[in-house]
Amino acid sequence: MVTETPSIKADIKELKFFYGAKQILNSVSMPIYKDRLTALIGPSGCGKTTLLRCFNRMHDLYADTSYKGLIQLQPGEINILDPKVDPIEIRMRISMVFQKPNPFPKSIFENTVYGLKVRGVKKRSVLMDRAEQALKDAALWDEVKDRLDSSAQGLSGGQQQRLCIARALAIEPEILLLDEPTSALDPISTGAIEELVMQLKNKVTIIMVTHNMHQAARVSDYTAFMYMGDLVEFGETTQLFTCPRDTRTENYITGRFG
Amino acid sequence: MERHFETKIEELKRILVLMGAYVEKALEEAAESLLKEDRNRFQIVHEIEDKINSEQLHIDNFCMELLAKQGPVAKDLRFIVAVIKINTDLERMGDQCVNIAYNGLDYLQHGYKIDCPEINEMVADVKAMVKQSLDAFVKNDEKLAQKVMLMDDSVDKNKNAVFRRLEEWMMKNPQHIRPALNLILIARNLERLGDHATNIAEDVIFASSGRDIRHGRESRT
What pLDDT was estimated at residue B4? Predict the structure, then answer.
């Protein structure tokens, strides 16, 4: 149960997104609360991953896409979607972890400090300290501390995903985006990732797309239900899963459609 | 496509209604045995209570299974939580019926009759409350549930009237305390039955709309 309304880390205001002429997001407005986990749920094609990808301007990598509206990052009210704002800078502040673990074909250490090196951090002791902290935050340190120079490819799927989370955390992001982070993992690894994100949300704002509604119910503080590009309902997770306001939310989460 | 879960919910509803019917029957038998002075009906109440107890276990297990396997949310979750609570209320209502039977038998065995019309009114009110609370559950009828809650005031009022009447009576007839005590206890049992029916009505409203109106948290109307 969320006891007090936390401060806002990002404010989505009338966000519309288009692939060519096709509108994918229909004027979505909602807050993202600081140091809380917000889950985005909804049936396939509802726009939840599209919304997530707006946060670090992933859509810029593809032709013929356009945004309208704002995502204001606080403090400072910087509009993430402003073409004058450098997407590389945004991705340094907002990092992302994908559905399938995707470690680079490098050592565990090199994977962890990759973002820092891109930023120009070269000092070995700084890299080492940050790698240790990130791996500890990702609950992987104890499992890999004696083999930091081994290939990341040799880790299990669950470990690889935690390494990807460590890599995302090493740059000390303000927001961590998780796109179905456990859908490719077994139940044990899924449980480990869930425990991890529940600890992480105390120090970083997290937005997570998930198809697993019980996962959203277990780990998130706030939940947004999307349907056909609309934000149908946003609220505290406890409220949304016990007493949803919208019939469409009710029908979706109880498995009556979708 | 009907969800498998939907059929399970319907089955759970059916079992709870059956248990409710046992409680209605137990109350009917306990009250009639007292009002019509038919001692043979007391035993029937005990037999029905056995059935109520075994249904209570059945419903608890059924709900546990649904919670464990289906991970219900929203109105499905509220429904199952309400059923678990109503189940407890119904079992206790069965116990109260047995208490009425026990006190009623003792009262009749004493052989001394006390005129106490409020008891008859309480029986009528409580029977209506039990029936309507179960109807409200079956029909998911919030208005009917609210009606049940309003009836509880009349039951409480009559219970206080019984207490006052019998207190005076005992002072005037100190040699016949026991039958008066029996009736006081029966009034107390009936009042508790009314409280349980009120709880059921509150749970019906919670299951239906998610509103928790217990302990004056929200207006009952």
Answer: 83
Question: Which residues have C-beta within 8 Å of that of residue B135, sequence separation ≥ 6?
Answer: B141, B144
- Residue B190's nearest CA partner among B221, B143, B152, B146 is B152
Amino acid at A16: K
- The confidence score (pLDDT) of residue A185 equals 85
Cα A134 from Cα B143, distance rounded (Å):
57
Say if A236 is an interface residue toward chain B (CB within 8 Å): no
CB contacts of A217 in chain B (<8 Å) are 73
- Closest by Cβ to A241, choosing from B5, B73, B209: B73
Cα A126 to its chain centre, rounded Å, is: 26
Q: For residue B203, what pLDDT is reported? A: 97
Residue A186 DSSP code: -
In this structure, which amino acid lies at residue A256?
R
Give the number of other CB atoms < 10 A from CB of residue B35: 12
pLDDT confidence band for A2 (50 / 70 / 90): low
Q: Does B165 touch chain A (CB under 8 A)?
A: no
Inter-chain touch A214–B71, beta carbons under 8 Å: yes
Measured between beta carbons, the chain B residues lying within 8 angstroms of A249 are 74
Q: Using DSSP, state whether A103 is helix, strand or coil.
A: coil
CB nearest B210 (choices: A213, A243, A255):
A243
Q: How far apart are CA B114 and CA B220, in angstroms?
A: 37
Closest chain B CA to residue A254:
B73
List of chain B residues whose C-beta atoms are within 8 Å of the C-beta of residue A242: 73-74, 77-78, 210
pLDDT at B219: 65
ipTM of this complex: 0.78
* Mean pLDDT, residues A131-145 taken together: 95
The mean per-residue pLDDT over the stretch A221-234 comes to 97
Q: Which residues of chain B fall short of a pLDDT of 50?
A: none
Q: Please tell me whether the overall predicted TM-score, pTM, comes out greater than 0.80 for this model.
A: yes
